[in-house]
Design a protein that fits this description.
It is a single chain. The protein is mostly beta strands and 277 residues long. It has two domains: 90 residues, Thrombin, subunit H; 143 residues, no CATH class. It has two helices and 17 strands. The strands form four sheets. Strands 9, 10, 11, 12 and 13 form a five-stranded antiparallel β-sheet that branches. The chain has a four-stranded antiparallel β-sheet with strand order 1-2-3-4, with no helix packed on it. Strand 7 and strand 8 form a beta hairpin. The radius of gyration is 28 Å and the shape is elongated.
């Protein structure tokens, strides 16, 4: 009886081993599932598509909505293929397209995110943790949003979240009250800049976003970081334009490894002090 039980156990183990062997062989030869169908996005009369027709690259197409004519095609990323492995299981496709701040946001199946400038076709890969999200707008206090929308020309601008942080606080005009600085975009041109809202009066000052200031010009698209420069640090002595003293906190705006500047209140208006090339 005992020997019979042992034989049954051996047979059961052999059956399991055979089943696992067949299953592994099936998985090894399996083809990857078809990529998801990506919904196209339409922006300013152009339809952007991700055909997902080539597993070796992720690419997009731009089509004129009115004429249904293909305008251009752009490879956003490529996939390195190991010849020793099944090729199709190495394919990576695009899984989502979105428009944010006038740029096309492309997300791959691996979760990598790419920002495409639809005018220059420049591609930038960025960390999804720093990308704009619906919740980002909650970072801007309601009082600041109300000031921006109730301002006479407020309809010309939208809040922008192309960079983090998108909102800073400081006593920028030196009146002892906290003011706010928020990233904005001019609707008609797409130019980006900064809106400063004075806490005492609610007055809004636009810098960039169609309004030129110093060497910064009227479009702050070049800026990739900014921070509050506390007035307690004193006026910097490294600037190419002199700042005798700071009445309030300033904004230090920067282009990485290129240039920086201080935006400060001179008693009458916001001024620009270049800090480096």
């Amino acid at each position: 009886m005992i020997s019979l039980v042992r034989r049954c156990k051996v047979v059961a183990r052999l059956a399991v081993i055979l089943l696992l062997t067949l299953l592994l062989a099936q998985l090894a030869s399996a083809k990857r599932i078809a990529p998801v169908k990506v919904d196209p996005v339409v922006y300013e009369g152009i339809r952007y598509l991700a055909p997902n027709g080539d597993g070796r690259r992720g690419y997009i197409e731009a089509w004129n909505v009115a004429t249904n004519r293909k305008l251009w095609e752009l490879t956003v990323f490529t996939n390195d293929i190991d010849s020793k492995l099944e090729e199709d299981v190495q394919w990576i496709f695009i899984k989502a397209l979105n428009i944010e701040d006038g740029r096309l946001i492309v997300t791959s199946e691996r979760g990598k995110t790419f920002r495409v400038d639809i005018n220059t076709k420049a591609i930038t890969q960025f960390d999804s943790l720093s990308s704009p999200s619906p919740g980002a707008i909650r970072e801007v206090p309601d009082a600041v949003k109300r000031a921006l929308t109730s301002w006479p020309t407020g309809k010309r601008y939208d809040l922008s979240f192309h960079m983090r942080p998108s909102y800073l606080e400081g006593d920028f005009n030196g009146d002892g009250k906290m003011d706010a600085a928020v990233l904005v975009k001019e609707r008609s041109t797409g130019k980006t800049g900064i809106a400063i809202v004075h806490g005492t009066t609610g007055k809004v000052t636009i810098l960039g976003a169609g309004v030129g200031i110093g060497n910064g010009g009227d479009d702050f698209e070049w800026m990739d970081s900014w921070q509050v420069y506390s007035k307690t640090r004193g006026a910097p002595f490294t600037g190419k334009t002199s700042v005798r003293y700071l009445r309030g906190d300033a904004l230090l705006v920067e282009k990485s490894e290129a240039a920086s500047a201080l935006i400060y209140w001179n008693g009458k208006r916001y001024a620009w002090s270049q800090q480096g090339d």
